[in-house]
Each structure stands twice: as structure tokens, then as C-alpha cells.
């Protein structure tokens, strides 16, 4: 395929020529006279609004039945021809309302182009004409919240689905107890909605239960290893909208760090604070805050305002805007890659050329292949994407009953109609029915009129439902408060245990030091008793005997005095030795009693802690 042919496919030239050819062939084959049609044939080619896949636009697709049908002439077609006809798609052109719906099959199959491919391309190609089509798939994608996947990198890698199943079961078992402690009011089974093994051998998990989703958004709650497999979790970056609020009109001089510092003192479960793109002006912007704890989220939302640096700021609930379904092959909105009939190859959203190698298109020139603007083809700045988004929001506003009953969508300001203050899209069918019943009850005339039993029953049931909802809400708040109290008690016990362990270690160290000192004192006393006093006594006795032996040979009075002094010194040393020994014995008795008392204190601390 040449570059010119590729450019023609991207610009839609081939499809325009094909559409013109279809119109020309259809006009030549059709007749102006009305033809009679069998009942079963009319059902086959009738347009059913509920079964019609395309909501907007002048081309409509009708699903033909697979069963065998008789033609207008009564001839039965063969089975093979029937299958070919059932695979074709009938084109209804609003300009030609008198098209013969029983076209000759041989003429259709001999055309130079594939009608099926042409019709699907016309249904999804938003760049070919001014009429943008909104499919049911696009409406469903826009109205539902798409939960991002949890990625768990495994080492070694997973190769067998059975191994992955065992790992999933062990993961649920390891987190179940702690999850139920932190979510005591949770009554559903703890299960994952979907899991698979990606080509790299890692786990991918989809969780649609809000409580379990929020619980596993913290990395510290995952086990480090299961079944000899090391786990490295990568949870989603954002929490669901049910845990997200918006601070409006925050001044640009207040940074994200300032907001974190100000709010962290009052709120402990803040997960993320970031600016909202598209709301930043020269002076102010909106800030999105996510909370792990549902109680703190409810308190902040019900308060309506938050004080930052002495100034009040408005708090509002975060409601997501409708998302656009964009094909990853042709970059056109309204369908997915597996249903793409616009392009047979992947188109780069940056430069618009064929994307054969991703590395070649990481730094290619940026030019939208839809409108030629200086942006990627999937950017909301693109006129095609912007117009499609406008039509999508308009379709959702015209048919809010297509939304799930518990879903609300936000309408951006640039897509609102002037003088229309509606900011949300929701399925309000049940609310409108309730309002009509209440209005009819309030507007009735007072007088001798019989009470409408049906309205009275409905009103009573509404009151009962409101009371039941209020009681359920109060019960949930009570359970959450009980859960918070239990968590606080556990924290206090853990702090007390840590303090007790520290004190016990300190006492043990003091006891060991006292024992070491006692042993040192005993060693010194023993050395003194063995060496000092006996040695002194022996030396004095020797000196006394020497002097006494010298006494007969000397008639000096000094020798008698020296003998008396030596004898008195010997008596003094003996008396001091006895007193020292007696004092040591008394100290040993007192030390033994102190050790017994110290051991009793330690034993009592252990007993009280165990109780």
C-alpha cells in the first residue's frame, strides 16, 4: 500500500467515494411503486429503536434474522444465499425513503466493495460528515465507572493459571482478617471481581468493591511473600469518586504542600492532594483531595467548608465527567479496536502515520490527523473529539434513563446550554415518580373527599423507606465509631506494650549491673580478708618477736615502749579485722533481702502484663 492510499484512508476519501457509489446504485435499482411485503418480512426489516445500535445519524443498522425467509415472489432462497444475506447490513437513507428492501442478492454480492465494511465505517467514522454517531457501547462506557487494575509483580514469574489461582486464594486469606477488623460492617464475601496473568507473568486484578479497593490501595497491607513468590504491588494512583472531594477556588499562592501541612493536623487518612486540570486560572484553581477513611470523607463533605490559613473554602463532592470511548487503532471516538473498520493498521496519535514500531513514534512530530491541529489526535482540543463529546453529553441529557440508577455525571461548563443551570446528569425516573405522588397529594382539595388509599400507601411506604434508610445510616455510623474505638484501643495497647518492654529491658540492665557490682565487691572483700589483715598481723607478730628477742641484750627503756606499742597495734588490727568481717556479713544479708524484693517486683510486673 502506497503512502497516498494510506493518506486517502485516513482522510476518508475512499469512504466518500464508496458512499456516493452506494447512493447511485441504490437509486438505479429502486422503483417508485410500493410493493407488498409479507408479515415476517416486515418484521425482519423493521426499525426497532431498542435494538438499533446507532442512536444518532441518518444511517441506521437493522439486524436481520438468521432464519430462512421467503421473498416477495414466493421463491425460497438457498441456505448459502440466506447466510450471505443475513450477514449484510441494510442501509436506510433518509433521502430515499422508497428503497426496495428486497434487493437482488446477486447484484449486491457483485459490487466492488464490501457493504458490511462500508456501513460499519460509516457508523463509526466521525470525520466523514457532520453527523456524529453515538453507539450504545459509547453510552455505556461514558456512564459507567471503569475501575483501574491492581498490578502485582511476581518473582519468580507466574506461568500456570492454577498457580495464579492458588496465589489469589492465599492473598485473600492473608488480608481477610485485617480487612474485616478495619471494615467491621462489611457483610459481603471478600473476593476479587476479575484477575488474569499478563504476558510478563505478573498478576492483574480488577476490584469493584469500594471497601476492598480502598483497603488494597496501600502497599503496606500486602504480604511480602506468598507460596515462595515475592510480591511487589502497584495499586492504582487514585481512589474511587466515593472517597474524593473538591476544594473550590483555592488561591494560586497556596501550594499543595501548604494544603497538606494544614489539613494533616486534622485529617489522618488523606491519600492524595492534587490540582484539577482545566480549572487553573490566573488567580485560582480547584484542588482534588482523596480520603482513605470514609468517616473523615463524610465529615468533610457534610461540613461544606474547610479552613486553610484562616480562610474558608467551599467543599463539594467529586463527580466524574462522561468518558469518551476512543479506538486505539484509528484514534476515532465511539468504538474499540476489535470493532474498528476504518483502518487496517495502527495509526500513531501523534503524527498520524502507520505505527509499526513504538520506538519510532515516541518523539515524532505532533499533528492531529483529524483536524490538522497542533495536538495529538485523542486530545480534547481536537474539534472532532470536542464535537463528539458535545453530542455524547447531549444524548445523555436527552435519555438519562440509559444511566444506571446510582450514577451521576458532571457536565463541564463549556458543554452547557446557555440559561440552563443543570450541572449533573442522573437517572431521576424514580425521583420524578415520587415527586408526582407527593405533588398530587399536596394539591388535593380539602373537604368531604375520600382519601386515596393508593397514594396513602405509597406515601407511607416512602416514609418507611426514609426511616429505614436513616436507621441504616445511623447503624453504619455506630459501627464505624465502634470500629474506630477498637482501632484506637489496639493502638493504645501497642504503645503500652512497647513502653512496658522498654521498662522491662531497663530493669533487667539495672539488675545485671547491680549483680556485677556485688560480685566485684565480694571479690575485693575476699582479697582483703585473705591478704591484707593476715599479712599485717603476721608482720607485726614478727616485729614483736624480734624486739622481744633483743630485749635481754639491751637495757634500754625504748625497747619496752616499742614492744608495748607493737602489741597494741597488733590488738587494734585484730579488732578491726573482726569488725570488718562482721560488717560484711551484715551487708550481705541486707543485699540478699534487696535482691529478693527486686525479683518480687519483676515477677509482679510479668504477672500483671499477662493478666
From TrEMBL:
Which InterPro entries did the record assign? Znf_CCHC (IPR001878), Znf_CCHC_sf (IPR036875)
Keywords, A to Z? Coiled coil, Metal-binding, Zinc, Zinc-finger
Superkingdom of the source species? Eukaryota
- Domain called CCHC-type: residue spans: 327-340
Gene Ontology terms for molecular function: nucleic acid binding; zinc ion binding
- The coiled-coil segments of this chain are 464-495
Protein's name in the database: CCHC-type domain-containing protein
Q: Which organism is it from?
A: Adineta steineri
Amino acid at each position: 500500500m502506497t503512502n497516498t492510499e494510506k493518506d486517502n484512508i485516513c482522510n476518508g476519501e475512499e469512504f466518500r467515494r464508496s458512499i456516493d457509489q452506494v447512493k447511485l446504485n441504490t437509486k438505479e435499482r429502486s422503483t417508485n411503486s410500493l410493493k407488498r411485503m409479507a408479515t415476517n418480512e416486515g418484521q425482519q426489516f423493521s426499525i426497532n429503536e431498542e435494538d438499533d445500535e446507532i442512536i444518532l445519524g441518518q444511517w441506521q443498522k437493522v439486524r436481520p434474522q438468521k432464519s430462512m425467509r421467503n421473498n416477495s415472489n414466493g421463491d425460497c432462497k438457498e441456505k448459502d444465499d440466506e447466510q450471505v444475506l443475513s450477514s449484510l447490513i441494510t442501509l436506510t437513507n433518509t433521502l430515499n425513503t422508497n428503497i426496495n428492501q428486497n434487493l437482488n442478492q446477486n447484484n449486491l454480492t457483485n459490487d466492488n466493495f464490501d457493504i458490511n465494511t462500508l456501513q460499519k465505517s460509516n457508523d463509526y467514522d466521525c470525520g466523514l460528515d457532520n453527523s456524529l454517531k453515538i453507539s450504545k457501547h459509547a453510552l455505556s462506557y461514558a456512564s459507567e465507572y471503569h475501575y483501574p487494575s491492581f498490578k502485582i509483580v511476581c518473582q519468580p514469574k507466574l506461568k500456570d493459571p492454577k498457580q495464579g489461582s492458588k496465589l489469589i486464594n492465599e492473598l485473600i486469606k492473608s488480608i481477610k482478617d485485617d480487612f474485616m477488623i478495619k471494615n467491621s460492617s462489611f457483610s459481603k464475601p471478600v473476593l476479587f471481581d476479575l484477575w488474569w496473568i499478563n504476558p510478563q507473568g505478573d498478576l492483574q486484578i480488577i476490584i469493584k468493591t469500594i471497601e476492598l479497593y480502598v483497603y488494597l490501595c496501600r502497599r503496606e497491607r500486602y504480604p511480602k511473600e506468598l507460596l515462595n513468590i515475592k510480591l511487589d504491588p502497584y495499586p492504582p494512583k487514585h481512589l474511587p469518586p466515593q472517597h474524593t472531594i473538591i476544594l473550590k477556588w483555592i488561591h494560586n499562592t497556596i501550594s499543595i504542600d501548604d494544603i497538606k501541612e494544614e489539613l494533616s493536623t486534622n485529617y489522618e487518612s488523606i491519600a492524595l492532594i492534587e490540582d484539577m486540570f482545566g480549572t487553573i486560572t490566573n488567580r485560582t484553581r480547584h484542588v482534588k483531595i482523596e480520603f482513605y477513611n470514609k468517616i473523615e470523607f463524610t465529615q468533610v463533605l457534610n461540613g461544606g467548608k474547610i479552613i486553610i490559613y484562616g480562610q474558608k473554602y467551599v467543599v463539594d463532592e467529586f463527580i466524574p465527567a462522561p468518558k469518551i470511548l476512543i479506538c486505539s487503532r484509528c484514534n476515532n471516538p465511539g468504538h474499540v479496536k476489535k470493532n474498528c473498520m476504518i483502518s487496517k493498521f495502527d495509526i500513531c496519535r501523534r503524527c498520524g502515520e502507520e505505527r509499526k514500531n513504538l520506538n519510532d513514534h515516541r518523539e515524532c512530530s505532533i499533528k492531529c490527523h483529524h483536524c490538522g491541529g497542533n495536538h495529538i489526535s485523542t486530545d480534547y482540543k481536537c474539534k472532532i473529539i470536542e464535537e463528539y463529546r458535545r453530542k455524547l453529553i447531549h444524548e445523555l441529557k436527552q435519555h438519562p434513563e440509559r444511566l444506571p440508577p446510582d450514577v451521576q455525571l458532571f457536565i463541564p461548563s463549556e458543554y452547557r446550554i446557555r440559561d440552563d443551570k443543570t450541572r449533573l446528569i442522573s437517572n431521576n425516573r424514580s425521583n420524578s415518580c415520587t415527586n408526582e405522588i407527593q405533588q398530587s397529594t399536596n394539591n388535593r382539595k380539602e373537604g368531604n373527599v375520600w382519601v386515596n388509599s393508593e397514594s396513602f400507601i405509597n406515601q407511607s411506604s416512602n416514609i418507611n423507606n426514609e426511616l429505614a434508610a436513616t436507621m441504616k445510616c445511623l447503624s453504619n455510623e455506630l459501627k464505624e465509631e465502634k470500629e474506630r474505638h477498637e482501632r484506637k484501643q489496639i493502638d493504645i495497647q501497642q504503645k503500652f506494650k512497647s513502653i512496658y518492654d522498654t521498662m522491662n529491658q531497663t530493669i533487667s540492665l539495672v539488675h545485671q549491673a547491680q549483680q556485677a557490682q556485688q560480685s566485684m565487691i565480694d571479690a575485693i572483700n575476699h582479697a582483703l580478708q585473705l591478704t591484707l589483715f593476715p599479712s599485717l598481723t603476721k608482720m607485726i607478730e614478727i616485729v614483736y618477736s624480734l624486739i622481744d628477742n633483743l630485749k635481754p641484750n639491751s637495757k634500754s627503756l625504748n625497747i619496752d615502749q616499742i614492744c608495748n606499742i607493737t602489741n597494741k597495734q597488733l590488738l587494734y588490727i585484730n579488732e578491726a579485722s573482726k569488725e570488718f568481717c562482721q560488717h560484711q556479713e551484715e551487708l550481705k544479708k541486707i543485699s540478699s533481702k534487696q535482691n529478693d524484693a527486686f525479683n518480687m517486683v519483676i515477677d509482679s510486673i510479668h504477672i500483671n502484663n499477662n493478666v
